[in-house]
Amino acid sequence: MTILKWGLIGGGEGSQIGPAHRLGAGLDGQFDLTAAALDHRPEEGRAYAQKLGVAADRAYGDWKEMLAGEQGREDRIDLVTVATPNDTHFEITKSFLEAGIHVFCEKPMTMTVEEGEEIVKISQATGKICAVNYGYTGYPLVRHMKAMIARGDLGAVRVIRADFAHGHHSDAADADNPRIRWRYDPAKIGVSAQFADCGIHALHMASFVSGQEAESLSADLISGVSSRVLEDDAMVNLRMDGGATVRLWTSSIALGRQHGLAIQIFGEKGGLSWAQEQPNQLIYTPLGERTQIIERGSDGLSPEHDRANRVTVGHAEGMPLAFANLYSDLHEAIKSQKEGKELDPAADLFPKAIDGLRSMAAVYAVAKSGKEQGAWQDARPPMLRT
Predict the structure, then answer these.
(1) In 48-189, where do the E strands start and end?
(2) Can you list the positions of beta strands (E) in 177-334?
(3) What is the strand order of the sheet 377-378 is part of?
């Protein structure tokens, strides 16, 4: 097996997302954590990297030091994961792509549409992969949904209901909590808060499974906690390029909801329903027939499911395994590129820079629509409007 050298920026000790990336990258033994710049405090970052097994000379104080150290090495890293605050994603991703290193960036990929278009162009010009972490698309039954829709099991898709609603920011007393405050600060998060944080996961999920992209949208935004400048709840209607309509709700003030990512697909010949908190079951209702439960790990499902399935039927599955599927896809893609081989279509499902760009265009369209009392906006990035 080819083991690729992996670098991690951000995701240090106490990080919410760092452990999921380390588990995902390390699960199959395909990536070795070779270099790291884990913390905005250089010495703490170096110390924690070495605690994780990174050699002292590749435990860096910051990403610029890491870039300078890696790009001159013959044994430099193959892939770097960017798990830093949103407003740093563009500069770091751009710099590593230009240095000839593949990038796996946390979402949102950039803060503006213009930055997103630049990343797409750099990825295309350098031939280097820029993947974006819409990690929930790594679940086996999500990939099976995509396969079912692609082979026509549902017929034409008419309506998609996509939710990502939780209640963890409901307490107005948390308005000054630094772990929450930054999520509603335009200087840190950009023009949108809840939609840019969670809503784009729901939108990407709808696009991923349906094979359709957003063309136009109308949004209603509120700040349920009145001191917030940006929205903490959004209802968005979207028209897709394949004829489907998406009804998307995202909220951080939905008390009683925990994670809250769920999707329903309604086609002319059947419907599907899946929720991230119950990822082992896909609910399928064919037209004129009884509702069925498709269990993850069952025999006779799609190649896309089978490639992503890791745990025997009936056992629990979790987010790090979904992340691991994206890392496995990236390993296959990088290895295929190195060897000049065709990539297995079942491995070519990781979200790419173009997906990150489409998300950012939707973010800006949602923000504009919200300010204009729901006026319909073009949801496409300028470079994709033909």
Answers:
(1) 79-83, 102-105, 130-132, 157-165
(2) 214-222, 233-240, 245-251, 261-267, 270-275, 278-286, 292-295
(3) 292-295, 278-286, 270-275, 261-267, 157-165, 245-251, 233-240, 214-222, 377-378
pLDDT for the residue numbered 14: 87
Burial code (b: 16+ CB inside 10 Å, e: under 16) for 10-31 equals bbbeebebbebbbbbbbbeebb
Farthest CA pair distance, the chain: 64
At 51, the amino acid letter reads: K
Nearest to 60 by CA among 50, 52, 51: 50
Q: Do residues 334 and 79 make contact, with C-beta atoms less than 8 angstroms apart?
A: yes
Sheet architecture: strand order including 4-10: 31-37, 4-10, 79-83, 102-105, 130-132
Spatial neighbors of 146 by CB under 8 A, at least 6 apart, are 208, 209, 211, 304, 349
Phi-psi label, residue 22: left if phi above 0, alpha if psi -120 to 50, beta otherwise: alpha
Q: At what angle do helices 319-339 and 18-26 cross, to 10 degrees?
A: 50
Q: Is the pTM of this model over 0.85?
A: yes
The rounded average pLDDT for each run of 10 residues, N- to C-terminus, in the chain (386 residues) is 96 92 96 97 96 98 98 95 95 98 97 98 98 98 98 98 97 86 88 97 98 98 95 98 98 96 98 97 98 96 96 90 97 97 96 98 98 98 93
